Amino acid sequence: MLIHGSCHCGNIAFELIWEPDPREIPARACECSFCTKHGGVWTSNPAGSLTVIVRQPALVSQYAFGTCTAVFHVCGRCGVAPVVTSLIDNHLYAVVSVNAFSNVDPSRLSRAPAWFENEELESRLARRKRNWIAAVCFEEGGSLQNAPKRFPP
């Protein structure tokens, strides 16, 4: 399954290849203070591959808090954070926001709360290595075929 997603204005877009085609997609509603404030609901497939296209890198902010091991990529134009990355042992891992999906029927999402507040740092990084997307590619200046283009590049 090829999943398309983006921030609201299309500046940050992604394609997630999810194989095999899932019957349902796990959607973790993180209950940390940051995700609660902006409605962060994340998914990943460790066997999947993710391509992220940033049309205008100057309009992207990176935000990290707490352990500073996860970086939220926030569009400075529309304020949406469609992708979160974590650099672990010089390897980039990622999760994507199910709220940024553009071609997935919401009935396929299996939403559940997730709480990682008291997790030790080593356990947190090990969980991400197991569960997050391990094949991650960032490209600048391009565009994905199905990403919205509501604003000029």
Report the major sheet.
7 strands, mixed
Find the CATH topology: Metal Binding Protein, Guanine Nucleotide Exchange Factor, Chain A
> In the CATH hierarchy, what is the class?
Mainly Beta
- Tell me the Rg in angstroms: 15 Å
- Unreliably modeled segments: 145-153
Question: What topology emerges from the helices and strands here?
Answer:
Elements: E1 2-6, E2 12-17, E3 25-30, H1 33-38, E4 41-43, E5 49-54, E6 60-63, E7 71-75, E8 83-88, E9 91-97, E10 109-114, H2 121-131, E11 135-140
Parallel strand pairs: 3-10, 5-11
Antiparallel strand pairs: 1-2, 2-5, 3-4, 4-9, 6-7, 7-8, 8-9
Top keywords for this entry?
single chain; 153 residues; mainly beta; Metal Binding Protein, Guanine Nucleotide Exchange Factor, Chain A; 7-stranded mixed β-sheet; 4-stranded mixed β-sheet; 2 helices; disordered C terminus
Overall description:
The chain has 153 residues and is mainly beta. It has one domain (2-140): Metal Binding Protein, Guanine Nucleotide Exchange Factor, Chain A. Helices cover 11% and strands 39% of the residues. It has helices at residues 33-38, 121-131; strands at 2-6, 12-17, 25-30, 41-43, 49-54, 60-63, 71-75, 83-88, 91-97, 109-114, 135-140. It has a seven-stranded mixed beta sheet, covered by helices on one side. A four-stranded mixed beta sheet has the order 1-2-5-11, with no helix packed on it. A hairpin with a 7-residue loop joins strand 6 and strand 7 (71-75). The protein is globular, with a radius of gyration of 15 Å. It starts with a strand and ends in a 13-residue tail after the last strand.
